[in-house]
Design goal:
By secondary structure, the chain is an alpha+beta fold. It contains 23 helices and 25 strands. It has a six-stranded antiparallel sheet with strand order 2-1-4-5-6-7. It has a six-stranded mixed sheet with strand order 8-22-23-3-24-25. Strand 1 and strand 2 form a beta hairpin. Helix 20 runs parallel beside helix 21.
């Protein structure tokens, strides 16, 4: 196992992503002070879990994130990852490589990663236990830790020795066991307090339970008497109600017959009224059609006039087209005449041009003859000049002197030619240099533009990352808020579900029956579970239901009977059952009239929702309750119907038949109807919050992905920018070099020009001397006078010939000018001919278009004339249609009068039947009112039985007992029982159950208390075993470390002695450790008496001793040899090589001896201020260098 690589990005001065590759042996990290070498050690310490910013040389954890420079903005996070080779599987994970990473953001969020998966710091610590790796271990020794080992108190050195002895994991286990023991002891104290309280409750509850048993006996006797009286009164009232029902049936039959007759009359009336309505509609439709036809007739006549006007307009256009055609034909004729005139001019020009060209050719022949004469004269003059030159060479002395000067002049000319050549070469080189300089300047400018563009792009990316960061924070806040709302809603939902499942708010007997639902499919559920109500009507429906809300619905009476037997057998209490096979609905008379009353919302049965199979049940429970908006309308409605209705308001007030009123809610009502609605709303809310959280997580993931992409883009920009900066520097150097070469070239050119000026001066002097020689040969010139005279004559003749040549040349030019002028005139005439051709073409096209328009106008006139004929025919048809409609309207008006008379007869008959129906309706209402009062008496007794005993009639009938007592005697017995119950005083009926619950809880807690005592004993035993194991192991390992320390001390110091001592009279597991050193030639003394170098070497000896005993996979040393002299550095490096057999070393140093011992060197520099960069160098052995 060894450290393979270290990756840092954004950590302290490492703004850019850097990867350090490590191998076996010694890797040295070097660099100047302040370059960021020690940040490598801080990065490794931090990724292994360091939580103290002070240990990382910072004030707060945010300080480890790259803070920016003058040229760079701060980064938003720091990231460090180390990769460890695990081929030997010393780490207990199934991977060949283990990558531990840590990331922290400026917002304070951080995360640990193990092979890319999120994990806890504890997971990493447990993974590295007993390996020597970790922030507390001896695998990372920083600059300050040497001083801490030497100058610290003996107790402060324990961590290092505990890690080396391998007891850290035992200490952590002991700490965990002690923590568990403390928790168990706290739990014991808490349970003891609860047991003490429960002991105080058991005694009083036992007495209350006995009193409650006596009360229940009296209550059962009282209930039996109340049941018998209730059943006797119930049967008596039902007999009376049957008599009233027979009378009500007769009246209802008569009323139904009258209503049928009324309906038949009403239907006949409706038929007549429908026919009359159709007749009216038909009449009205025909009248509308008549009006439409008349309007259409007017429109058609108007259209005929419009068409006539269009024909007249088309005729005028036809005349205009004819005039235009004549005009166009005239223009065409004129253009043809103009073209013929120009054609004549063009022919005349061609004839004149041919004559001028003939004259020019004759002139050119004369000019050629003159030129030939001039050439002959020039040849003769040349011959004469040759004779004169021959005469001049006759004087030898003059020739010798002239030759000497001419030689000197020739040398000057050669030198002059060389200088001219150098100037040309210099200028050619200057042009090349200037071109190179301009090229480098263009390259430099192009690179600078790219860098500016890259910087602008980087700014945009940073702005985008800033926006992403802000959005991420907003999403995080929204996620926390949404999560909080989700947990609150989910908690409330779970609470409601638990309450619903446990049937909290229902009676004990109800809960016991509902427990049997899974085993008995005949149990459908309580009324509250079956019906659903809108929130606005919950209070009204709960008030109307009263105790019935807790009634249990079963499929048939057999299921209900079986459940009643269960309640009796186990004395669970009583419950009311509603078998669907026995239930029938009850309606209300005059229902339609009641619904029309002010404030009436509807009947209770119409305001609830349930499955179709429960319709009769809903009608039975709520069909007779009228729901109104508020109590004022309820009072008015009750008075109008003489207090014969059951009315309930939305706020919960109840008006009973007979005039009684009540408010509030029944004692057993616990908003049972609202639970399901609230659960449904909460489920929707929980789902919405869950979906929103998923959406936020998805958006956060997308944001992180986009941020990663932006980070990669910015990293890519940074790399490209670095390359461009390098190219910019290269281009700038090339430009400066080219500019320097160009300036040097200009200096050389100036020097050449100075030399050329000197040569010109010498040439002038020689020319003067030659002029003197010419004066001396004047005699020779006189001899040639005759030749010169003849030469003058020849020259005069030549001059005359040249004048004649000049005159002929000028005349030839005049002819050329005339030819050019004639050609231009001819071209002007040709252009006019072309222009006339274009004009004629346009006139012909316009002529053809106008002719076409004329033909279209004539066709249009014919078409419009046909439309007029068609419109006149349509006008005749419309007039006939109007006459037919007028006849139809007259006939329909007569039919309407007949139907109106028949309609009046039906109205009289309907009024007569309506009076009869009202009389019968009043009789039915009187009988119904009488029946309702009887039902009110039954309901009053039923309500009493429900409120007192939660019994319905069917349940009470099963409890009927045979008795010889009359009704007065039973009432007297009831009064006696109520007196006995009153004498008992306040009775806690729940005391029986409470006593059982407290007793059960007391027994359970007593058992837990005993278990905790046993668990505490087990933990204490574990702690003692750990202490014993740690003492034994530490003693053995400490002795081994002490022996190895003395051995390494002697090797590093070249003698002497070193030892370790435990402080006396202290526990071996907590005792401080004293380091005693005796360098060669000195007395045995304490560490504080040693020099700085001796202290450092002593600490290094201790570290090497621990490494040799228990080698860590890798060890990072941060300038621990800084205080050593060169000789000690060499010994330190030699011993370091010995340890590389088992340990990989990464040393941060600036000592040459350590560098020489390293296998690989990494250089840390700051090419850019505040940003650390990396340079890698491989060192070869001396043998390799020789080879």
């Amino acid at each position: 196992m060894y450290l393979k690589s270290l990756e840092v990005h954004g950590f302290k001065s490492f703004a850019n992503k850097l990867i350090f590759e490590f191998h076996n042996g010694i890797t040295a990290i070097v660099g100047p002070n302040g370059s960021g070498k020690s940040n490598v050690a801080d990065a490794v310490r931090w990724v292994l879990g360091e939580q103290s910013a002070k240990q990382l040389r910072g004030a707060k954890m945010e300080d480890i994130i790259f803070a920016g420079t003058e040229l760079r903005k701060p980064l938003g996070y720091a990231y460090v990852a180390i990769t460890i080779s695990n081929e030997d599987h010393k780490l207990n994970v199934p991977y060949e490589e283990v990558t531990i990473a840590r990331r922290v953001y400026r917002s304070g969020e951080s995360e640990y990663l193990l092979n890319g998966a999120s994990c806890r710091l504890r997971d990493i610590q447990e993974l590295l236990f007993d390996t020597g790796i970790g922030k507390e271990g001896y695998s990372i020794i920083g600059q300050g830790q040497i001083d801490k080992i030497l100058s610290g108190k003996p107790e402060e050195r324990r961590e290092l020795f505990d890690e080396a002895a391998g007891i850290v994991k035992f200490k952590k286990r002991k700490a965990a066991a002690e923590k568990n023991l403390a928790e168990e002891q706290q739990n014991m104290v808490r349970i003891e307090d609860i047991l003490s309280e429960l002991e105080k409750q058991v005694g009083p509850l036992e007495k209350q339970s006995e009193k409650a048993h006596e009360y229940l006996i009296y209550r059962d006797e009282l209930r039996g008497l109340d049941v018998n009286i209730f059943l006797m009164e119930y049967d008596q009232i039902h007999t009376e109600m049957e008599d009233v029902s027979r009378k009500q049936d007769i009246a209802s039959a008569d009323l139904e017959n009258a209503r049928k007759e009324f309906e038949e009359t009403k239907n006949e009336y409706a038929q007549v009224e429908e026919i009359l309505e159709k007749q009216n509609q038909s009449l009205e439709q025909n009248r509308e059609n008549l009006t439409t036809s008349r309007v259409s007739l007017n429109e058609q006549e108007g259209n005929v006039k419009v068409l006539q006007e269009q024909i007249r307009s088309a005729g005028q256009n036809e005349e205009h087209y004819k005039e235009r055609l004549e005009s166009l034909q005239k223009s065409l004729n004129e253009a043809k005449e103009e073209k013929a005139g120009y054609q004549e001019k063009q022919d005349a020009f061609d004839e004149k041009l041919a004559g001028i060209r003939r004259e020019q050719e004759q002139l050119q022949e004369t000019l050629a003859q003159t030129s030939s004469q001039i050439a002959e004269a020039e040849r003769e003059i040349a011959d004469r000049n040759d004779e004169i030159m021959k005469a001049m060479t006759q004087t030898t002395e003059i020739k010798t002197t002239q030759q000497k000067f001419e030689t000197m002049l020739e040398q000057i000319n050669v030198k002059r030619a060389e200088l001219t050549k150098r100037v040309l070469e210099n200028k050619s080189e200057a042009a090349g240099l200037q071109e190179a300089m301009e090229e480098q300047k263009a390259v430099l400018s192009d690179i600078s533009d790219k860098i500016e563009g890259m910087d602008a792009n980087t700014v945009e990316i940073r702005n985008s990352m800033k926006k992403l960061s802000e959005r991420s924070q907003e999403l995080e806040k929204e996620h926390r808020d949404t999560q909080q709302k989700f947990h609150m809603a989910n908690s409330r939902l779970n609470s409601l579900k638990n309450m619903t499942e446990r049937y909290e708010g229902f009676g004990q007997s109800i809960r016991r029956v509902m427990e049997q639902k899974e085993h008995n499919p005949g149990i459908i559920g309580v009324v509250a579970d079956i019906i659903r109500v809108e929130k606005d009507y919950e209070i009204a429906i709960e008030t109307a239901l009263g105790g019935s809300i807790q009634n249990i619905v079963t499929d048939n009476e057999q299921t209900a009977k079986a459940m009643i037997a269960l309640l009796k057998k186990n004395r669970y209490g009583r419950a009311t059952f509603l078998p669907l096979t026995n239930i029938s609905g009850r309606g209300v008379n005059q229902a339609q009239n009641i619904l029309q009353e002010p404030g009436v919302v509807g009947f209770g049965s119409s305001l609830v929702h349930a499955e179709a199979r429960f319709d009769r049940l809903v009608e039975y429970l709520l069909g007779r309750f009228v729901v109104v908006d508020h109590i004022d309308h309820a009072i008015a409605l009750a008075k109008k119907y003489k207090h014969s209705l059951r009315i309930v308001t939305k706020e919960g007030e109840l008006l009973n038949p007979g005039g009684s009123m009540s408010g509030g809610a029944y004692k057993n009502n616990n908003n049972l109807l609202g639970r399901h609605r609230e659960m449904e709303n909460l489920e929707k809310e929980v789902q919405a919050q869950r979906d929103r959280m998923r959406g936020i997580v998805k958006e956060q993931e997308e944001g992180r992905q986009e941020a990663k992409e932006l980070q990669d883009a910015m990293e890519n920009n940074r790399k490209i920018r670095q390359e461009l900066i390098l190219k910019q520097n290269t281009a700038k150097i090339n430009y400066d070099r080219a500019k320097g070469d160009f300036l040097k070239n200009q200096d050389d050119l100036d020097q050449i020009r100075l030399e050329s000026q000197g040569i010109d001066t010498q040439k002038t002097e020689l020319t003067g001397q030659l002029d003197a020689l010419k004066a001396s040969i004047s005699d020779t010139e006189s001899k040639s006078k005759e030749n010169e005279t003849h030469l003058e004559e020849l020259n005069k003749s030549l001059e005359q010939l040249r004048e004649e040549e000049k005159r002929l040349t000028e005349k030839n030019s005049e002819y050329s000018l005339k030819i050019s002028t004639e050609i231009q005139s001819n071209e002007f005439v040709a252009q006019n001919i072309e222009r006339i051709d274009q004009t004629m073409k346009g006139l012909k096209e316009e002529f053809e278009a106008t002719a076409e328009d004329s033909r279209q106008a004539e066709n249009l006139m014919q078409t419009k004339q046909q439309e007029i004929e068609s419109a006149r025919k349509q006008i005749e048809e419309t007039k006939k249609s109007i006459e037919a409609l007028e006849e139809t309207i007259r006939q329909e008006s007569e039919n309407k009068d007949k139907l109106s008379r028949q309609h009046k007869d039906f109205i009289d008959k309907r009024e007569s039947l309506s009076d009869k129906i009202n009389e019968l309706d009043k009789e039915c209402f009187r009988l119904n009112n009488q029946k309702d009062k009887m039902e009110e008496r039954i309901n009053s007794r039923t309500t009493y039985m429900w409120e007192q005993y939660e019994l319905t009639y069917h349940a009470a009938e099963e409890l009927r007992t045979e008795t010889e007592l009359s009704m007065p005697q039973m009432k007297q017995e009831i009064s006696s029982l109520k007196g006995k119950i009153k004498a008992l005083g306040d009775v806690n009926v729940n005391a029986i159950e409470q006593y059982q619950d407290v007793l059960e809880r007391y027994t359970q807690l007593k058992t837990q208390h005993d278990d905790l005592i046993k668990a505490a004993g087990v933990l204490e035993g574990i702690i003692n075993e750990l202490d014993e194991s740690m003492r034994k192991q530490f003693a053995e390992q400490f002795a081994e470390i002490r022996e190895r320390f003395d051995k390494v001390f002697k090797e590093l110091f070249g003698g002497g002695r070193g030892t370790l001592e435990l402080l006396e009279e202290e526990d071996i597991l907590t005792a401080g450790i004293k380091i005693v050193a005796q360098p060669p030639g000195k007395k045995l003394q304490n560490m504080m008496q040693l020099s700085g170098g001796e202290k450092a070497l002593t600490a290094i000896a201790l570290l090497f001793a621990i490494q040799s005993l228990k080698p860590s996979p890798f060890c990072l040393l941060d300038e621990i040899e800084a205080a050593l002299d060169d000789s000690n550095v060499d010994r330190y490096a030699q011993y370091l090589h010995k340890l590389t057999k088992d340990t990989q070393f990464i040393v941060i140093t600036h000592r040459r001896g350590t560098m020489n011992a390293a296998d690989i060197l990494y250089g840390i520099t700051m090419q850019e201020k505040g940003v650390s960069t990396l340079v890698s160098v491989n060192l070869l052995d001396e043998k390799d260098v020789v080879n």
